[in-house]
Specification:
Mean pLDDT: 86
Helix content: under 10%
Oligomer: single chain
Distance between the termini: 11 Å
Order of helices and strands: EHEEEEEEE
Low-confidence stretches: 1-17
Number of strands: 8
Largest sheet: 8 strands, antiparallel, barrel
Strand content: over 45%
Shape: globular
């Protein structure tokens, strides 16, 4: 299942589509993460879609970011494919992007 406190690290890949702007553009590409329990996985962002692989499960989501949200920027993963119990649910989170790359903390879908 998707869990909180995801730390991502990978080279930043620039988006090829000019329609993708702002922070969503900065997220484009494939990122690896490790959970607090040592489980690792990947996010792969392509425009406003993301494929998340974690713990042997694959989730496809529509992604929305709010870079003006306070006190933290928000990110939502609306799950469109994956384990049946997760499809149709949204995993909500917060994020920041630094020179070292993005950090994302998300909730379990629901």
């Amino acid at each position: 299942a998707l869990a909180s406190a995801l730390a991502l690290s990978a080279p930043l890949v620039a988006a090829q589509d000019k329609a993708v702007e702002g922070d969503l553009k900065k997220l484009q590409g494939k990122w690896t993460f490790t959970l607090a329990d040592g489980t690792s996985g990947t996010f792969e962002f392509d425009k406003d879609k993301a494929i998340t692989d974690i713990g042997g499960q694959t989730y496809t989501s529509k992604v929305a970011v709010d870079e003006k949200a306070e006190p933290n920027r928000t990110i939502d993963f609306e799950i469109t494919a994956g384990p049946a119990e997760a499809v149709g649910q949204t995993a909500q989170g917060i994020y920041k992007i630094t020179d070292e790359g993005p950090s994302i903390c998300i909730s379990a879908p629901g």
